[in-house]
Amino acid sequence: MKENTNQLRKELRQVGASAAEVNELLPIVSRLNRLSQHPAAVKNNSPKRLARVFKPMPFVASSLALGTFLVIVSQTASPTSFLYPVQKFSDSVAIGVQPQYRATVMMKRAQQVKLLVFEHASSQQVLATLADYMMEARAYQSTPQTNYAAFEFCKTNLQQAAASASPTVKQAITSSLQSLETT
């Protein structure tokens, strides 16, 4: 150990350190020297650190893949499906990112009302989906770039639904269409 210290002292003096600087640097250099004498400890420690950093990565990647899959599958879900809330949430996120997407969502809700009527779904389910349509339609109607062709598409779908609906649902669809025309 004393021999190493003398060697370090000699090397520090050769690179231009004064006697006072050698005394200050010697403890630091001797610690660095000890680290360099144990490269296995340093090498073994590095993969452990990397493993701690990358350990959650498979979980995060699989969660993102599952979430993406759910969003994609939910886009074709019926309002009676357990994936319908996922569809509504992803649609609201898409509208937040791209406000023009609201017309697409509005048309999808009108088609869903028609589908539910044709499938003889419960009046409660049809009316809930009609309420979702109305919320999107009113919001879309207030945008400056309103596309009236989208409203005509929705109107046609809802009129077809009303033609086959129960009296209660037919009245709700008719009053919804009238309220949109008057505003």
Instruction: Work out the helicity level.
Output: over 70%
Radius of gyration: 35 Å
Number of helices: 9
Beta content comes to: under 5%
Parts with pLDDT < 50 across at least 5 consecutive residues:
none
Average pLDDT level: 83
- Give the overall shape, derived from the CA principal axes: rod-shaped
Distance between the termini: 92 Å
Give me the count of strands: 0
The helix-strand sequence is HHHHHHHHH
Number of structural units classed as domains: 2
Characterize the main sheet. Answer: none
Structural class: mainly alpha
Descriptive report:
Helices cover 81% and strands 0% of the residues. It has 183 residues and is mainly α. The protein folds into two domains: 2-54, no CATH class; 79-182. The model has no long low-confidence stretch (mean pLDDT 83).
Task: Provide the descriptors you would attach to this structure in a database record.
183 residues; mainly alpha; 2 domains
